[in-house]
Please model this.
Amino acid sequence: MVKIVMLGPPGAGKGTYATRLAPKLGIPTISTGELFRENIKNNTEIGKKAKEYIEKGELVPDEIVIEMLKQRLQKDDTKNGFILDGFPRTLEQAKALEEISDIDVVIYLDVPEEIIIKRLSARRQCKKCGAIYNLLYLKPKVDGICDKCGGELYQRDDDKPEAIKERLRVYEEKTAPLKEYYINKGKLITIKTTKIDTPPEEQVEKIMEALKQKGLI
Ligand code: ADP
Ligand code: ZN
Model:
């Protein structure tokens, strides 16, 4: 049983690593960003409320995210643990999470801003299965087509330059303080990236090592 939070700026690799880590640990990845994109696709009440914030690169209001996450964590597949990708993103959310569940460890992805901006602009995602690619270094075998499911790749609206700038600003203001918060709780592990083309597998190995050292797996 291990409960993990992935923390770090947009484009740091939270989703990329979480989806590779999860099968190794036999637990699900829960991405609030993905949950929102699904809700928007299906035109649900949550989707309707969240859409305008997401398109502008702003955070969705805490009460909406917290309620959505609470419901997701009630599903059976979380009984052996989970990886949270994109939650918490504010101090309010971190405090709410404490009421819902006990987190074991927070993996903080330390990535320089110039790498982040290059990565986000080159990021593409599968419309069908959500797999993440990057035109710079994590290319699909066939242009515009998902390796895993043959789905069409697209660029998220919030990966366009204006929204990227706003997301980074919001990250610094609202989310970066969580680093201190989790250091003080003795839960933070830092994983550093210094090159844009570091293979995800290499970083995932580092994370696995760190989890072992902490006696969590
Ligand atoms: P990234 O980590 O690359 O920024 P995500 O897919 O995690 O992208 O999130 C996309 C968008 O969904 C965010 O910019 C924000 O608008 C919204 N969102 C996701 N998670 C949260 C959250 N915990 N709190 C508020 N908004 C969120
Ligand atoms: Zn796909």
